[in-house]
């Protein structure tokens, strides 16, 4: 699998996710600077977490208009997979690759902690190694992760099975207590219509190594390698 | 040179001298350095910051010199931007802790944020990629009307900066006491990693080499920050808000990446960040250390607004700026890197061999100072001091004996013991994906990238002990960091110290400084644990009321195998609980949290630290951890044995049945040099006899299991303990206590 991580000024999870990918692919991950638009053919593009351009406008709003994102959109049209995590999720929603928006957390504060998410779909290249209903423990770290979309959009996402992950309790029950940021319908991650783009707030790269206390995120990268190899 | 013709001479008035925080004697010394000539305002400003307490350590230098700073593994001790130790396999750990107390009281968010930014720069300027941030915070009485606002602002500021920069904030400490009502403490620490043979220093060399300014533009913020940090506060201190700098973590992130990229080339001769006193201290110190002169063209300094004077440019404390001496002909390579990262880059002058600091504005000399004489004449005081009167040792019989369950409930939910989850969940403690032990344990553990080794780090100080007996308190602060590192399985290597005290011109405060430093030194020697960097923050007083003496210690150690790491959480039911290091059954309640929180008294002598005992017990515990005999380990500190036990039980959600311990003095005393460990039941007697063989006191005090703590027919449920422990902070911050 040929994978690349986009690096914006202010990205700070680029190295982490590149290493998580490398762990699954066995080869170094390509890093693409935000001003580069002529990167090679790829199977997977990662839009990583961080504070792109300082996030001084709405989170992800400036990165969404960077030269590299125009190219990412073209690649998505050609079917290249895109994994967008945290600030990456904010960027791809701002870029229109996924519907909805990530608002300020319900508690108004930045939150870094492990959360549980329930796998809602296992038919994508990202989630193929999970089963529907699996409960994963994956960390979040964000101040703007409160997923919002209008009613019609939410209905469409549900009808088309495009909700990838939902915040849940340890036993898999989707409760308001388990919702760390106020996201509608506890949504933690969604797909585009063709399931080639996944945006998610939790960081699978942060628990992809048992030595750090958990590796529930690992299967996501392994699945990509198996599907796209 | 005829100064009258080249420098516009505004006469210095007594008011100017006073407003620059200089004494008459110091001004007389300035005239002497200048050979009788009066300084102009720019020069006076430079003298004032270079001779400020903050930059010159004039009150503490005499005593700081007595601290042990060497060991075979110390690569660079105090005097550089941060200390450097050899951690093997070609790597060095670089770290330091620094205060940002006064700005954080005036403007908590920006004060704390720029404190983090400043300490990060101190570390990456030496060539290290920052891998972890820590902090040590002290706030006033929770009931004080300002405390909640200050806690919220400081925590948000630390998080706002560290989270964006992408360096995990992995641990620290938060305490409350009325002595900090008017003067909170915000001490920030950064730990970085560098290749041992690629460390960058600040001594300038090579006449003619270009002096380069990189980073953010210079604005009018923070002018006289160093002078402010060297004076007491009063009711009007909030008027000083304009002297607080504003941080931009995004620019800092770019600056880290750009500096790392430049450091990978062979372009840098020396480099230093512009911290306190900005361009003045960086250029002056670099030239001074290298025995060089420096000439700067002020019109080349990138400025945020037009019409800034050389005085403002030299004294601004605008953030996210660095000064670099490049090797000849390397301007092009360097410029390209900083342009890529969209940062300012300007050649603002060059080194000379004149030994003078010459500043020019469009060709006209606006400052001409002799560097060496100014540094040599820097004041150093042997301030009068008096020893703190010893307090009587408090017998257990003099302290009210509350049933253990009742006392434990009070302690678990008290401000100084309650869980700090509310705080650290606002810090990104996992970015960089190497955090192996998160906040909430004895020490944070951060894996060395792409290896199976790790650094452990902790910050500690018990100010109530230091106040009661500065010597023992200084020892205890060092010993507690050593113990916390040991408890996770690390080998303690070195410390950084952040000495926060009141006004050193008062002999009793100076006495606290002197004795605490002596105590720190004694512990460092006994534990082979040198001081490699530090910071002194004096004049922490408001309206004449000093803070409790608070020499915060940051300790760093190494785990040669990450898999040997332990945590405080009970791991399984049916395991033996052993108490190691308990010398007798007297139990030390003087200055304990039990005494303060349960009995409402702060008195008595603090627990003494027997350093030989400390080392023997700690080395034994570490050996057990490395031999994988221990399943959980926790040092005993605030609140004593039962609080430590409850924290271990909550960590694993497994209770324990206790025996062989009784009485408030044993259950809540704060005797030093003790650990609680769990071992598999079948290993218990072997571990006990091993301990006895080498003279480490050991006692089996119970067995893990159930969902309660039980002792002497009474029990406390973990559910109840958890609610008390987790509940206080969020309830307090929501104004619901």
How many structural domains of chain A? 1
Helix content of chain B: 25-40%
Task: Label the overall shape of chain A.
Answer: globular
Compute the number of strand runs of chain A.
11
Tally the beta strands of chain B: 28
Question: What helical percentage do the residues of chain A reach?
Answer: 10-25%
Proportion of β residues of chain B? Answer: 15-25%
Brief characterization of the structure:
The complex is a heterodimer of chains A (229) and B (737). Chain A has 229 residues and is α/β, with parallel strands linked by helices.
Structure description:
The complex is a heterodimer of chains A (229) and B (737). Chain A is 22% helix and 24% strand. Chain A is of the alpha/beta class and 229 residues long. In chain A, strands 2-1-3-4-11-10-9-6-7 form a 9-stranded mixed β-sheet, sandwiched between helices. In chain A, β10 and β11 form a beta hairpin. Chain A starts with a strand and ends with a helix. The mean pLDDT of chain A is 97. Chain B is built from 26 helices and 28 strands. In chain B, a hairpin with a 2-residue loop joins β2 and β3 (91-99). Chain B is globular. The termini of chain B are far apart. The A-B interface holds A 9-10, 12-13, 15-16, 19-20, 49-51, 53-56, 109-113, 139, 141, 203, 205-206, 208-209, 211-213 and B 156, 159-160, 163-166, 248-251, 253-254, 341-342, 424-436, 438, 447, 450, 452, 562-563.
Topology (elements, then pairings):
The complex is a heterodimer of chains A (229) and B (737).
Chain A: E1 3-7, H1 14-25, E2 30-33, E3 44-47, H2 67-77, E4 81-85, H3 87-94, E5 101-103, E6 111-119, E7 135-142, E8 146-148, H4 151-159, E9 163-168, E10 187-191, E11 197-200, H5 218-228
Parallel strand pairs in A: 1-2, 1-3, 3-4, 4-11
Antiparallel strand pairs in A: 5-8, 6-7, 6-9, 9-10, 10-11
Helix pairs in contact in A: 1-5
Chain B: H1 3-6, H2 14-19, H3 24-33, H4 41-50, H5 53-56, H6 61-64, E1 74-76, E2 83-88, E3 91-99, H7 101-106, H8 108-124, E4 129-139, H9 147-165, E5 169-176, E6 185-195, E7 210-215, H10 225-228, H11 249-263, E8 268-273, H12 278-290, E9 293-297, H13 310-315, E10 321-326, H14 331-340, E11 344-352, E12 356-361, E13 364-370, H15 371-376, H16 404-412, H17 421-424, E14 435-437, E15 444-447, E16 454-460, H18 463-468, H19 470-487, E17 491-500, H20 507-527, E18 531-537, E19 541-542, E20 545-546, E21 550-559, E22 576-580, H21 593-598, H22 611-626, E23 632-635, H23 640-652, E24 656-658, H24 664-668, E25 675-679, H25 684-693, E26 698-704, E27 708-711, E28 714-717, H26 718-733
Helix pairs in contact in B: 8-9, 8-11, 9-11, 11-14, 16-26, 19-20, 19-22
